[in-house]
Every structure is written in C-alpha cells, then in structure tokens.
C-alpha cells in the first residue's frame, strides 16, 4: 500500500474481553509498534469493517469471533445491516522510516468470549489475556490505557 502524506486509511480493531470473572482483555505485543494493543489492522478494499475485524482477529490470535449486527430497520434488497461499532477514532500515525505522517480512521468493536488458548503470528512478540491491573502495568499507548476501564466494565 502506497502511503502519501496526510492519507486517511480505514482500520478495524477488536477489544476481546472474557465473559467470566474477573474480566480479562486480549492484548498482543506488536513488533512494529513495540506496544501492547488489541488485535486489528487495515480494512481491505473488498471488506466492510466487521469483516476486516473478524479476519484480523483470526490472523493475529487464531480466534474465530462473531460480530453480530443489531438490526434497527428492515433489510432491503439493496442493503444489509452491518454491526455497529463500539467506538470510532482518528489516530495520527507519525512519520516512520519511508512512511510519511498519515491517519488511521479506526472502527472499533468489542466482543465477549470465554477465555481460550491463543495462537501468535509473526506480527507480534507475545499475546495473552490480562486483567485490568495486569494490562495497566504493560507498555501501552495512552489511548489503549485510557480505554481499558471502559472495555472491561461489566
């Protein structure tokens, strides 16, 4: 993907939280950023945000998740309800190497699953489930740290 100064790229992120007590959040230690993050990545041209989120989670963790739509209207022949995001954020991505400064428009989902084993891929150093207290002790972007309390609420 060729990146130009100021480009805005759509990304999808999934906060995956256990549905037992105490709640835990899934984070991976990303090689490129050297921080712990929830799974996610760029939305491909042929995907909607939920499809990208599901694909990224499978690639980065081995988990198969579902992000159900919450229909608010009747489905028509020309459209289908998509899952509503938990949140959306615009992040400034600083210049790094050959990549100029650009933006990520992040479509953020939250799903609950039972705690289960994970599969690491080559984009991460490590991956695990963490309580809020454990996660707060990790190397996190400030936006990730601030989101923890909200995403781990019952």
Automatic annotation (TrEMBL):
It comes from the Bacteria. PROSITE patterns: NUDIX, NUDIX_BOX. Coiled coil: none annotated. One of its GO terms (molecular function) is hydrolase activity. Residues 7-154 form the Nudix hydrolase domain. Belongs to the Nudix hydrolase family. This is Nudix hydrolase domain-containing protein.
């Amino acid at each position: 993907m060729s990146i130009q100064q100021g480009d805005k790229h759509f990304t999808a992120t999934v906060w995956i939280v256990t549905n037992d007590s105490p709640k835990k959040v899934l984070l991976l230690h990303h090689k490129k950023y050297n921080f712990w993050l929830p799974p996610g990545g760029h939305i491909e041209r042929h995907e909607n945000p939920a499809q990208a989120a599901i694909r990224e989670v499978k690639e980065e963790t081995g988990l198969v998740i579902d992000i159900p739509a919450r229909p608010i209207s009747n489905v028509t022949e020309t459209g289908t309800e998509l899952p509503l995001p938990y949140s959306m954020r615009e992040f400034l991505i600083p210049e790094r190497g050959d990549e100029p400064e650009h933006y990520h428009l992040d479509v953020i989902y939250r799903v609950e699953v039972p705690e289960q084993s994970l599969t690491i891929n080559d984009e991460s150093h490590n991956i695990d489930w963490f309580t809020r207290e454990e996660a707060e002790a990790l190397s996190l972007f400030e936006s990730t740290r601030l989101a923890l309390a909200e995403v781990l609420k019952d």
